[in-house]
Amino acid sequence: MLVALTGFRRRGGWGQGPVSACVRSWSGAMPRRGKEKCKDSVKPPAPSGPVVTDKSGSITIAIHAKPGSKQNAITDVTTEAVGVAIAAPPSEGEANAELCRYLSKVLEVKKSEVVLDKGGKSREKVVKILVSMTPDEVLEKLKKEATS
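Request: output the structure for the sequence above.
Response:
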């Protein structure tokens, strides 16, 4: 069955241009009451990289922990996370404490300023830095340690 639409004009095709995402008909009809109006579908880009500033202004680092290693080391810095080998077993929080101690040494901050935020029982962790530094400074120090 073929249905003809009158008063409907297609300008540039669907998905082409900022208006077409919100307005499907150019017939001039008023939007219905109670219908949700189109909001800007443009969201700010998500921060990329493993080191970002959170809402409270603290720096957070996404960590991929590798406990049980022979020595502490930054193994790699990718766009998703910082790989950290930890010379402590993954039991009773020993590896988490060693991770915070090692990161405080690498970033040259006090041990109390490096706090495990998420991932206490996971290899994927988020560490919060409670000192005024920029994400670029933190990333630079991490990359420097990874290359040495």
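The first helix runs from residue 94 to 107.
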